[in-house]
């Protein structure tokens, strides 16, 4: 495998790991549910997307071509993450979960 492909795969893996770490830290550190919802839905989605790009690059350079499985995983991930976040936020609003004073807006008043 050429050296530049190895560098590209490593860069995608490091970028994906960094996004996943930022998402996990956000999930742990943010004060209320509405702020915590952004960690797994935004940063972790980008992290998994970068790791899948690394997989596409690696296996594409091995001569196996573009895999439909990786493209379907990416499509499924980028469709379901925002939908599930929206459903969780609506359920939290219906339950009137407590909000931190830094959270902007009170949708149920």
Task: Explain what the structure shows.
- With 109 residues, this protein is mainly α.
- 79% of the residues lie in helices and 0% in strands.
- It has four helices and no strands.
- It has helices at residues 3-29, 33-36, 38-64, 68-95.
- α1 packs antiparallel against α3 and α3 (38-64) runs antiparallel to α4.
- The protein starts with a helix and ends in a 14-residue tail after the last helix.
- The model has no long low-confidence stretch (mean pLDDT 87).
Key words describing this protein structure:
109 residues; mainly alpha; 4 helices
Largest sheet: none
Coarse morphology? elongated
Poorly predicted tracts of residues: none
Would you list the SSEs in sequence order as H and E? Answer: HHHH
- Give the helix/strand class: mainly alpha
In angstroms, what separates the terminal alpha carbons? 60 Å
Count of runs of 4 or more consecutive helical residues? 4
Percent of residues in β-strands? under 5%
Average pLDDT number: 87
Rg over C-alpha atoms, rounded to the nearest angstrom? 18 Å
Overall helicity: over 70%
**Strands, total number:** 0
